[in-house]
Design brief:
about 325 residues, Retrotrans_gag_dom, about 60% helix, 13 helices, mainly alpha
Length: about 325
């Protein structure tokens, strides 16, 4: 790739030198042109005339034009400009799209990366599709050529917006988009970890960003899908940003896991140990832990899912 780019740059330099040489030669010819010897001039007068230098016209086959063909010169200049744009575009290692095992997020990611690079390079609208198609490989390359062949010559050149629409239609059709939207609306954490739930949540949003009105809806959607015990620990804080909700959900998940481990260890120890009662070495079982006695009264556990203390989460400081 580096060698090909260097050859293209060398070609541009040669083209520029040829154009400069052609312009310089034309000026020299005009300056050295002799006056025409008219009938009636004496021989001495004729000898005063400076003969025209017999110089061949510079070969400009490479650009296909001469000073006598303005249209050809314009076409050559346009080809030179387009080649320079391609060389600059290639220097930034643009992402490729091969169409193999395509997932919706791949299409979205490629289009977004391509638009960012084209905008950063201040690319002309007429060059965008031409440059982007250089990044299509395998089946997508065949698809891109087919689009150009099928396009009527009476229509204007393919614009970027239309090309992007064709990409989505072919590789991310509305049927797939609708399935992801339905999947997002039904998405719940379930038995998964908060991290696993967040990855699927963010993945769908990357594929179908319009599933939400704006970023302000993101924390609410995420919070509603959390498991009930984690939801209660997060919702009570009335957080407004997605990063805060995610951080608190991860913290609550860790806290709940720690509390469960302590509870299980306490139950295990309570089943093995016996307190002596002073009557022949026999023992009687210890009283159940406080939280078990609370549960036996039918009022439910009164431990805080936020800090692990023995109080209601709503009163947690």
């Amino acid at each position: 790739m580096a060698g090909a780019m260097q050859r293209q740059e060398d070609q541009i330099v040669r083209l520029q030198e040829l154009v400069a040489q052609q312009a310089s030669t034309q000026v020299d010819v005009e300056r050295t042109a002799s006056p025409i010897v008219m009938p009636g001039m004496t021989e001495g007068m004729a000898t005063v005339a400076i003969p025209v230098a017999a110089q061949p016209t510079p070969a400009v086959v490479a650009i296909g034009s001469g000073t006598s063909n303005p249209e050809g010169a314009m076409m050559a200049a346009e080809r030179e400009r387009a080649l320079a744009a391609l060389v600059m575009f290639r220097k930034f290692d643009p992402p490729v799209f091969d169409g193999e095992k395509v997932e919706p997020w791949m299409v979205e990611s490629w289009v977004d990366s391509m638009e960012t690079l084209l905008n950063d390079l201040c690319t002309l609208e007429k060059d965008k599709v031409h440059l982007a198609t250089h990044c299509l490989e395998r089946t997508t390359k065949v698809w891109g050529k087919q689009i150009k062949r099928d396009r009527s010559s009476e229509l204007s050149p393919l614009a970027w917006e239309e090309f992007r629409g064709l990409m989505y239609t072919n590789y991310f059709p509305e049927s797939k988009k609708k399935k992801l939207q339905d999947r997002f609306r039904k998405l719940r954490q379930g038995n998964r970890s908060v991290g696993e739930y967040e990855r699927e949540f963010s993945h769908i949003i990357d594929c179908v960003p319009d599933v939400m009105r704006d970023d302000r809806d993101r924390p609410d959607w995420f919070e509603q899908g959390l498991r009930p015990d984690i939801y209660r620990a997060v919702h009570i804080l009335k957080l407004t940003t997605f990063s805060e909700v995610l951080d608190r959900a991860l913290w609550a998940e860790h806290s709940n896991a720690h509390i469960r481990e302590e509870r299980e260890a306490s139950e295990k120890d309570g089943g093995k140990k016996r307190a002596p009662d002073g009557s022949g070495g026999q023992s009687r079982p210890r009283k159940p832990p406080k939280y078990l006695r609370t549960q036996s009264k039918g009022r439910g556990a009164r431990w805080c899912v936020i800090c692990g203390g023995d109080h209601d989460p709503n009163r947690c400081k």
